[in-house]
Amino acid sequence: MNKKTIIANWKMNKSLAKSINFAKNLIKNYYETDNNIVICPSSICIHDVLKIFSDTNISVGAQNCFWADRGAYTGEISAEMLHEIGVEYVILGHSERRTYLSETNEIINKKILNSLENNLKVILCIGEKTRQNNNINSIFTDIEECLKSVPKNSFNDIIVAYEPVWAIGSGVSLDPENANIICENIQEFVENKYDFCNIKTIYGGSLNPENSKNFLNQPKIDGILVGNASLDLNKFIKIISK
Ligand code: 13P
Fold first, then answer.
1. Which CATH number fits domain 5-240: 3.40.50.150, 2.60.40.10, 3.30.450.40, 3.20.20.70?
2. Is the model's pTM score more than 0.70?
């Protein structure tokens, strides 16, 4: 099996004490896997978590960043700042930010361009809102708008996270075979549109220790983005273990 990327999106759930505790226990209980593991804590916890993982092959990601390097942007954190402290990944375009903070594809595009310039790997989230709305063309439009002006040599640093919005936090996931087809469609779209083969595509939405292997075994699914189940150490260890 190819190396897969397993990403934990802790969202706004773990305090500093809880983040540190989880990170230390993950290392203690963790046995090597060939997969890439990425933990995305809240921004105020990133620095401490990075220090704990410094001698491991576990990477750290941010859940957001701003589109400029620095300036009068009260409350924001830049990709440049994240990269300086050792962050490798940033989640952009998550549906919760689109919903609660009105992030548009235009805003996400500016964040993506700046993150790539600052050598962060981008986890771009896209996905249909309702189960009925399974129009793949709306996903292609989102990808096109979010990736506007991205240079071809940066596509290696982009992971497209297909997260059907209805599956997030609902306890109902898409079935793995259909998720595999959508990931394949996304790869084909990117190949035709940008002449870039095999862009990394991952799935997210109501993953748990029971269903995650079925997704990881799909040929076109390069990894998974886990919300709720990544908050529980035992569940997460089951997910990342072979
Ligand atoms: P859940 O795994 O809780 O459904 O969340 C998925 C998600 O939004 C990851 O970014």
1. 3.20.20.70
2. yes
